[in-house]
Write a structure and sequence with these properties.
Oligomer: single chain
Distance between the termini: 45 Å
CATH class of the largest domain: Alpha Beta
Helix content: 25-40%
CATH topology of the largest domain: Ribulose 1,5 Bisphosphate Carboxylase/Oxygenase
Number of domains: 2
Order of helices and strands: HHEEEHHEHHEEHEEH
Strand order of the largest sheet: 6-1-7-8
Number of strands: 8
Length: 233
Amino acid sequence: MAHNKRITKANATVDRNKLYDAAQAIKLAKANATAKFDETIEVAFNLGIDPKQSDQNVRGVVALPAGTGKTIKVAVFAKGAKIDEAKAAGADITDVEQLKADILANKLNFDRVIATPDMMGELGQLAKILGPRGLMPNPKTGTVTPDVAGAVKAAKAGSIEFRAEKAGIVHAGIGKASFTEEKLMSNFKALLGAVMKAKPNGLKGNYVNKITVSSTMGPGMKLDLAATLSDAA
């Protein structure tokens, strides 16, 4: 019952018909994050794309200036000196054979996979497991790179990957409810800028149809698109 009461109370603070500016929405999302854990403040972008068209695939990576508030576990596919570089940069898992065995057994005890270009052949049989979970290394997101040390450090420092799901929605966390409003706002601006930059070249019509901000367990608030996008321009 307490759970239902909490949700009812949070819903009462949000006007479903109102369009909020980003700062207001972040403030309210923080206030409504009253679960027993440190909720994530989440942003959903409903895009006017057709993800079935390969040229309308929206994805990328963005460094959140205030970090993510969680520890990212990084697995690396590399060999020789590149393994040493990855370890020195803070990689958590670098034993390639063990990593392959774990992935094939569906033991995915990591948040990010980074690979050097010469190791992509080793990943062929793992794509069907890693791909659907958004973990397959990709040059577009900086996770296939000869600079494994740089990629590991970026992941650890708070760079996140984003990609449009089947319905054309990009969903990403911009930090924890315990973050200050200023930190969440700086992360929101970085994510918004990266999503706008990822707009497909040949897209006709609206790119962004709706942006919603919420906490993990809280209600969503629709942003005023005109104001939000003019700030991003």
